[in-house]
Amino acid sequence: MIRSVVKGWGAYLPQRIVTNAELARQIDTSDEWITARTGIRERRIAAEGEFTSDLATHAATAALAKAGIAGDDVDLIVLATTTPDETFPATATAVQRRIGMTRGAAFDVQAVCSGFLFALATADNFIRLGQAQRALVIGAETMSRILDWEDRGTCVLFGDGAGAVVLEAAQGAGTADDRGILSSHLFSDGRLHDLLYVDGGPSTTQTAGHLRMEGREVFRHAVTNISAAIEAAHAANGLSSSAIDWFVPHQANARILDATARKVGVPTERVVLTIDRHGNTSAASVPLALVEAADDGRIKRGDLVLLEAMGGGLTWGSALIRW
Ligand code: ACO
Q: Which candidate in 58, 185, 210, 250 is catalytic?
């Protein structure tokens, strides 16, 4: 059977670091509160005039270089974002133009913080059906642009950034020993819209709107839903948590990550954590963490890597990759 193998990876973070102390000078919060409740110490914020497509293009260019291929060798871009440059066209087409890709298709997917998992599953399905040979999967966000900077319950949580992987079709035996994406599981429940949404949009207010969240309720659903998505990944591959080399979760809150890792039985030293430095970068958080662990040599060829995320919608999902 055809598998989608990770051939390259790359990430980009804006230059500007905003610490908790800096936020505490602007709003009624403290480094102690943010660190204790979320594990976040600082986040990156995009510069004026620096757009989601800029972050995405940097990450994509690094991923292509790692894979040793050119933009025109790619025949599919799936870009996950909740903060596109414009309402249309897709931010993916801006990346397509800038990496010099002149064929195939480029489009965005929207699943908020689960976006990278949804984009990865989409690209994997295209590859396994033979409709694409090489795909760029990108998660890129400028969350700072849709935050209400007077709402201390949300503005301290998010950051900007981008991460990308290059997937390539390869033959596999159809077992869990194959390299590539072994499985992906996606879920959503539109009844939970009101827990996490943006209070604007082209069809409703003709504005971009601001992020609104019932943090405590989202937290409650997160551990249950993420654990179920992980169990689905294990069951589909006949594996248990003891087989997982690296757990790369969506970085929303260090307490959610701890509780989830405990519930599914992954030891802390196998969990990749970036939340302290990145905050929640929504669709960019999983690829940013993945790229950090691959670049510093933790994730090695042949390792079994478990990804998960949950976000607005609510949406959630998991993926198992043999690196
Ligand atoms: N600084 C200081 N105090 C604060 C801050 C702040 N930044 N924010 C809230 N508080 C106060 C509240 O006003 C409240 O005060 P009160 O008790 O006097 O009313 C108190 O702290 C507790 O507030 P809670 O909201 O109940 O705090 P909680 O422990 O639930 O932590 C948090 C809030 C961090 C948001 C947590 O609920 C959380 O992480 N939720 C999940 C978020 C998540 O997973 N999102 C994932 C998806 S994101 C996406 O898809 C875009």
A: 250
* Contact indicator for 118, 287 with CB cutoff of 8 Å: no
**SS3 state of residue 245:** coil
Q: Supply the pLDDT for residue 264.
A: 86
Fold of 2-171: Peroxisomal Thiolase; Chain A, domain 1 (3.40.47)
The pTM for the full model equals 0.97
Task: Convert the pLDDT of each residue in 265-301 to its tens digit.
Answer: 999 999 999 999 999 999 999 999 999 999 999 999 9
Is the pLDDT at 263 greater than 90, yes or no?
A: no
Nearest CA to ligand 1 atom 47: 311
Q: Which CATH number fits domain 180-322: 3.40.50.300, 3.40.50.2300, 3.40.47.10, 3.90.550.10?
A: 3.40.47.10
Token pair belonging to 45: 């914020």
- Residue 113's nearest CA partner among 84, 141, 73 is 141
Q: Is 280 part of the annotated catalytic residue set?
A: yes
Q: 224 CA to middle of ligand 1, Å?
A: 18
